[in-house]
Design a protein that fits this description.
The chain is built from 4 helices and 14 strands. It is of the alpha+beta class. It folds into 2 domains: about 140 residues, no CATH class; about 160 residues, no CATH class. The strands form 2 sheets. Strands 1, 2, 3, 7, 12, 13 and 14 form a 7-stranded mixed sheet that branches. A 5-stranded mixed β-barrel has the order 4-6-8-10-9. The longest helix is centred in the first third of the chain and has 76 residues. The mean pLDDT is about 85.
Length: about 300
């Protein structure tokens, strides 16, 4: 190919290059825009996963704080704490569990409603303008009579309108005693030998009683001879707060007498006397909080539960 023709051809070929590369430049620009959009979506998803998960953890943490504070506050109310002491207990339990803001109110004796919150910084969500989040929770706890308990002593107390913190001398009902009420009876938890030795064992080791429930019929222990075993175990219980069953109806006579449990009470035994028609236990009924299932009548022994 001669010189002029080669130059003409090369010049045409050289002029084709820019127009041939133009589509690739457009596609490269579109890719950059698409990548930026995808990057935003990825960041948003990461923010949702990380900050959303962190927010869930903080929400659960606040629920624990509200639950703990409500239960502690209700227990303090039941134990006749002053309003300032109840406030101190609620705030301490809430803040020990991470809450930064605490408000509460009482709906009645042994009933507390608590609201808590905590504001925390975000991680990736700050990129999209969300620098902090607030987790909130609320809980209500309520005290009620118990329907079942553990560690109850086999000392059945007759149901009567007793007053808390007043001293009562409880004696055997007729025919074991001719005295008027209020009365008490010795009970046999397992319906077995119904002996003085077994009765003493359940008083020395109340954990043997297992779970006792209202509406159950329980046999009595008609005699407590010999009394040496029983005296030893009762001496160990003097001055302590005891969980005792409250009985209502009775059935049977003589050695076949049974008593129906209608509730449970807290009783601090201060003195006793064994043997003969003058047998008695003396002490005070108290308002007391224990673990147990709610749903029983209020004889002073209460359980505190969260209201769902």
């Amino acid at each position: 190919m001669d010189g002029p023709r080669r130059e003409a051809w090369w010049g045409k070929a050289h002029q084709l290059r820019p127009s041939a590369c133009a589509p690739w430049r457009g596609e490269r620009g579109q890719t950059l825009v698409l990548f930026a959009l995808v990057l935003v979506v990825i960041i948003a998803m990461v923010a949702l996963a990380v900050d959303g998960g962190h927010a869930y953890v903080q929400r659960r943490r606040m629920q624990y704080a509200a639950d703990a504070a409500a239960l502690a506050g209700a227990r303090a109310l039941v134990n006749h704490a002053s309003p300032s002491r109840v406030d101190q207990v609620i705030r301490q339990y809430a803040r020990d569990n991470g809450a930064s803001s605490v408000t509460w109110r009482s709906r009645g004796p042994g009933d507390v409603e608590v609201r808590v919150s905590r504001t925390f910084s975000t991680f990736f969500a700050q990129i999209v303008g969300i620098s902090s989040m607030t987790a909130r929770a609320e809980a209500e706890a309520r005290a009620s009579g118990v329907a079942s308990v553990r560690n109850a002593l086999p000392i059945g107390v007759e149901a009567f309108p007793f007053r808390l913190n007043q001293v009562y001398e409880l004696r055997h009902p007729p025919p074991l005693s001719s005295t008027a009420g209020p009365h008490f009876v010795w009970l046999d938890w397992n319906g077995g030998t119904r002996s003085s030795r077994e009765l003493a064992l359940y008083i020395c080791e109340p954990e043997r009683s297992g779970v006792q429930r209202i509406h159950r019929w329980v046999w009595d222990v008609p005699t407590v001879l010999p009394i040496s075993y029983l005296r030893y175990c009762l001496n160990r219980r003097l001055g302590q707060v005891l969980i005792v069953p409250v009985y209502g109806a009775t059935r049977g006579v003589g050695l076949a007498r049974q008593y129906r449990i209608v509730g449970f009470a807290a009783f601090r035994m201060e003195a006793y006397h064994l043997g003969g028609p003058a047998e008695f236990v003396r002490g005070r009924f108290l308002q007391w909080v224990t673990d147990g299932d709610p749903g029983g009548p209020n004889y002073g022994l209460l359980t505190v539960q969260l209201v769902k």
